[in-house]
Design a protein that fits this description.
The chain is mostly helical and 135 residues long. The protein has six helices and no strands. The protein starts with 5 loop residues before the first helix and ends in a 5-residue tail after the last helix.
């Protein structure tokens, strides 16, 4: 399993160096447990901050994730539907000169962002279905 915690590599190197300081397996296990608990603290604090952020009454604070999702939807809708319909309408009205000036959005980064958001939402749904989701 890949560990995405950037501090885990440092912690593993640190534990490897400290192995010579511990004389028993029990001391080594206690030190490793303590180190792992310290590594989990930032994740717990971030989760608590996310919960408080979601409770906030202001949509500017609690709504940035949905706003980001809607922005992705708007950009993709413009690129794949709205822009094409406007171009068709302008071409039918013999205004191809205006149609050629409509901006096109680069959707490669938008799709990456949208897929990340959908992946997180999908993972959350799976957790809920399995009954392992926290509050």
């Amino acid at each position: 399993m890949i560990n995405l915690n950037p501090m885990a590599g440092i912690a593993n190197a640190l534990m490897g160096g400290l192995d010579s300081l511990f004389t028993s397996d029990e001391e080594r296990a206690k030190a490793e447990l303590s180190l792992n608990q310290q590594l989990q603290q930032p994740h717990i604090l971030q989760a608590l901050a996310n919960i408080e952020e979601a409770k906030h009454p202001s949509r500017f604070v609690s709504g940035w994730r949905p706003a980001l999702g809607w922005l992705c939807v708007f950009i993709l809708a413009w690129t794949w539907i709205v822009r094409d319909l406007i171009i068709i309408g302008l071409n039918l009205a013999d205004r191809a000169d205006i149609a050629s000036q409509l901006p096109a959005a680069d959707t490669s980064t938008v799709i990456t962002l949208l897929l990340c958001l959908l992946g997180l939402g999908g993972a959350r749904t799976v957790e809920k279905l399995k009954g392992v989701a926290r509050r």
